Amino acid sequence: MTRGERLFIGGRWVAPELGHYEVTDPATEEVVGLAPEASEDQVYEAAAAAREAFDGWSRTAPEERARILARTAEIIRDRAGPYAELARAESGATTATARGMQVAVAAARFDRYARGALEPVEEALPPQINEAGPMGKAGVLGALAVRRPVGVVTCITSYNNPWANPAGKIAPALAMGNAVVVKPAPQDPLSVFRMAEALAEAGAPPGVVNVVTGSRPEVGEAAVAAPDVDMVSFTGSTAVGRAIAEACGRGMKRQLMELGGKGAALVFDDADLAAAVAGIGTTFSFYSGQICTAPTRVLAQRGVYERLVEGLARYAGALKVGDPRARGTVVGPVISAAHRDRVEAYVALGRKEGARLVTGGERPALDRGWYVAPTLFADCTPSMRVVREEIFGPVVSVLPFDDEEEGIALADDSEYGLIDYVWSGDVARAFRVARRLRAGGVGINTVGRNMEAPFGGFKQSGVGRDVGSYALCAYGELQSLVWPG
């Protein structure tokens, strides 16, 4: 078992006032390490340290910020092996996912925002000719729109990716000149301490990055409520997002919210079914379905409905479920016993609602670990809770539709709107349908993402956009400068 971690506040490693709690490997149910249990006062201290560091960091030359972020990426890559093993142990991700989609993506994000620190922050606006009037003489006014850092940003991250998700918040926030307080998910916070070590070693000044953790909701609440915090960047459930938004509203704090999803995948009669099955099948395998962008709600045109269901069943049945360290494992455990119980409750609910269970539905026969078998429901109806609610596990529901209009209506019949998908051999139709979907993103014949494209949700799936240069805008405030020409 690793040592008990300490909080990182103001550039110092600080003993937690409320002791430690255990972080458990979802695959073995063994203790991976001890995470600090911060007090509310310590969270406020972290925010105050960030406030003190902000002024100097915001005035640091962009080239210096870029150097520190690039050096952080180098350190992460140099230690990718042990970092990936820690990520695998605390999150339950397969070895390949921990290496390629967690640690490697985190390093790539620090590299991306090392370049982002050098992007222009000023935009010249057209001059305006003003006639004489109550405001003064006739004249020409010039103007600049200037992007300024927000200030102190609290970054609250999700458990499904303990490297890429925090890096996607910390790196652009720092690139813009903000200071941060990071509050990782309680289930797998240990990787973020290694990230903080890398940043400090790379030269991040004391207080620019602070890390506080805890298993109690009061820790996250304090990280939002702290008077020194100007903005909250949150990834997690819509229910928690609403509570954070209410708290931010009282202090007029800026928000960036990436919340739940129930992605619709429209599969038309002329689609490449093999490609559609492979894309939708990532719900079963990628993070064991614990991902908000997953195409969990499949809408199949009747001409391909049965073939698509059969293809998904074969795909799910061929996936190896088990020890994420073992070669060939595709589906690892979910994050906790409580979450496994939640997913299994939804599977039981789907049966009760009358959906046809095609495959899965039973707990895998493994001696230990919190596993859920890839599960496929067919013959679902739009009102079923397994169709409407985010399950966050390897569960897919399939509904039929007749024509384009019905497919679009079914896709938009959701409180969520993060990412939808369209599979069709008719590219014109695919783009036509995509433009009508009320979602922040639409994958057309792919589940891949362009990491420069804006990412965020419509409706209950979030507020704001990040990724690429859009993240720099999200962590900045616009200021106008006006002068007589």
From TrEMBL:
SUPFAM superfamilies: ALDH-like
Keywords, comma-separated and alphabetical: Oxidoreductase
Pfam families: Aldedh
Segments forming domain Aldehyde dehydrogenase: 13-479
Domain of life: Bacteria
Metal-binding is among the record's keywords: no
Stated name of the protein: Aldehyde dehydrogenase family protein
Species name: Streptomyces ochraceiscleroticus
